[in-house]
Amino acid sequence: IEIKVCLDSQIHIGSADSSFDYLSYIARSVIHGLPSSAYLIVTDRNVAKFHLTSLEAALHAVIEANARISSKVSTYIMPSGEATKTRETKAGMEDWMLVSGLTRDTVVIALGGGVVGDLVGFVAATYMRSVRLCHVPTTLLAMVDSSVGGKVAVDTPLGKNMIGAFHPAKHIFVFPHFLVTLPAREVANGMAEVIKTAAIRDSTMFRLIASSAADIWQAFKDVKDASGTCMLESRLHFLQSFIASSIAIKSDIVNADPKELNGTRNLVNFGHTIGHAIESLLLPEALHGEAIAVGMCLEARIAVTKGHLTISELRSLRDCLKAYDLPTSMLDFAKCASAPNLTVDKLLDRMAIDKKNAGIAKKVVLLSSLGSTAEKQASIVEDAHIAAVIAA
Length: 392
Ligand code: ADP
Ligand code: ZN
Description:
Blueprint lengths: L1 E5 L2 E5 L8 H12 L4 E7 H20 L7 E7 L8 H13 L7 E6 L1 H13 L5 E6 L2 H7 L4 E6 L2 E8 L4 E4 L9 H18 L1 H25 L5 H24 L15 H11 L5 H18 L5 H13 L20 H8 L10 E3 L2 E3 L2 E2 L5 E3 L1 H9 L1
Parallel strand pairs: 2-9, 3-4, 3-5, 5-6, 6-9
Antiparallel strand pairs: 1-2, 7-8, 10-13, 11-12
Helix pairs in contact: 1-2, 3-4, 5-6, 5-8, 6-7, 6-8, 6-10, 7-8, 7-11, 9-10, 9-12, 10-11, 10-13
The chain binds adenosine-5'-diphosphate and zinc ion.
Zinc ion binds next to α10.
């Protein structure tokens, strides 16, 4: 187990070794590390099917093994999907917690993908003026991105993550074991953030991701086709190295600008200025990683027209995304019922409420190569420039 520190969080990154009892490790770390009268596991209906009973059992086992510990463990199951990351779901959970008599010493354990992590994290940030939080991310996307960095939030109809807080988890448990049940499309969804992270910071990592795509992705799909949702352990080992590198980069960036005050934290938003706008217009048909994959291609195109990036680097970025079955142009969303919404005007409208904006000026992270950026933060880009790449 490798432990990294990011803000107030200890990130435990486990190896994909199948003989390691990761659930017991999580249970022991939570209960011995954060003594409390109550532990609340929150998950969604999907994840509950696969991973809830085993985590509950692990927590009970630790409590029962120690006569001096008499904590109670409770569980709250929410619906799944980005559409449930709302103020209403948050209020419902809070009311349930109050009725259940959960006090301020409660430790909340978010077991699930980014939706569960963001929403439950925000509940933990505000319940009785904040309670302790642990993240147990079960999607690749949540492992490499959303569970790291302390941001928690809910969506509103006008935009993603518009209402939220900074509330770093005490512990983040990153165990690739959870990924064996994750569908291929969700793995690709997380790979988009892994590719993003490499693109802004690490050329070697980018080349490795690009060159291993054929091997690992095709092999993964073959396994999946033959036996449903099951990923071979050998696949997990490859993912594990990308997970660890992504977390290391994200932690560095976050530690240098925890609350987005000096602007450098917004580097992790490469692909997200245009990507978020696409995502909000296509929700729920497109996944976050799919929308930002196209966002990355379009924003990299802006970097090309500004002379920072070469055309051949843009092509390599596209090829890499394609190799993981990710879309690279808005045309790839043609099958979506809401695709007609993707007009220049609507997209620019959505971008107008981006949290990175400085007043009316929009910002885009411009690559200078596959592994570095033109500035140490997002650059101001004129609307006309953005409109031009969208319309092209
Ligand atoms: P993300 O992490 O991509 O932001 P979600 O939290 O919405 O998004 O998770 C994506 C979907 O995958 C949800 O339907 C969720 O229930 C499901 N899911 C999460 N983790 C797993 C897992 N380990 N195995 C199977 N399905 C999972
Ligand atoms: Zn993202």
